[in-house]
Structure formats: C-alpha cells, structure tokens
Amino acid sequence: MITRDPVGPGQESVWDYPRPPRVETTGATVEIVLGGVTIAHTTRALRVLETSHPPAYYLPVDAFVPGALVPTAGSTWCEFKGAAAYFDVVAPGSAPSVAAARAGWTYPHPSPGFEQLVDHVAVMPAAMDRCTVDGEVVVPQEGGFYGGWVTSRVVGPFKGAPGTRGW
C-alpha cells in the first residue's frame, strides 16, 4: 500500500489525478531557461495530469524562441497519447552553444481525447538550466524517464523514484 503525502492548503495530490490522464489549461506563467537563455515563455501552457505523476507541462510551439526546437529522429509510444516525436532543445545564441538531445517531445497526431496537445511541446526539466511555474523553480521528477514538473503545489509520493516501477 502506498502512503500518500499530506495535502496542505492550495496543494493537490497526484494520487487524485486520473488514469487515463487529463489535459487541462493553466494560466500560470511558465518559463524555460537553457544555456543561460530564456528559450520559452508562456501563460498558455497545458498540464497533463496522471495518477502518481507530477504534472507534465506542454507549451505552445510559438512560446519557444526561433531555433530552440530541432526535430530529431525516433519516436516512442504512450498508451494514452499515442506516438511522440522528439526535439533536440537548443539555446540559440548561447556561448558556448548548448543543446539537450531529445529533451523535448510532442504528439503531432495524438490519440482521441488528447487533441489539445497538437502544436505543444513538453521538455525534460532535468535537461534544462531551469524551468519555472509562476516564478517557482521546478524540481524534475525522479528517474530520468518521465517529464514531470514538481512544484510546491503538488504532493506525492511520485512515480519515478527507485522502487516505484510497478506503480
């Protein structure tokens, strides 16, 4: 049995998130910094909420500075969202040049129910210098596989840490 972390005022438990996941809009200010350069900024992000996972934030493609998203080969399959395509995330104008290989992904033709994700991109926060939500610096979801963004707004425990594979 999993022991839930206590939920405080203004917080939500990832154990109350649905499975299959839900996509919701957020008016939060979301910013991504790589190589010392702000490569994305928006108040039009989407959050994907799935049981046991901190939210993954998907930003509109036009929130990224030109040249920050470079399509790369390969894809993966999500049982809910469908086939993902990947980007190398680049900090244009950074010196020295900074790139995070396959650190961004999108669903060009998502499964039914996830159409909102078209023309939106998520990034691995661990591969960036900093990701923020309303000015709060995000803690990357543990494990290196999932792209969840941990803020003080969400409580776990979160999937991804050692021993959570079967959750």
Characterise the protein shown here:
The protein is 0% helix and 43% strand. With 167 residues, the chain is mostly beta strands. The protein has one domain: Domain of unknown function (DUF427) (Metal Binding Protein, Guanine Nucleotide Exchange Factor, Chain A). The strands form 4 sheets. Strands 2-5-6-10-9-8-7 form a 7-stranded antiparallel sheet, with no helix packed on it. Strands 4-3-11-12 form a 4-stranded antiparallel sheet, with no helix packed on it.
What's the SSE blueprint?
Blueprint: E1 12-13, E2 22-25, E3 30-34, E4 37-42, E5 46-49, E6 56-60, E7 69-78, E8 82-91, E9 98-106, E10 120-123, E11 130-133, E12 136-137, E13 139-140, E14 149-150, E15 154-155
Parallel strand pairs: 1-15
Antiparallel strand pairs: 2-5, 3-4, 3-11, 5-6, 6-10, 7-8, 8-9, 9-10, 11-12, 13-14
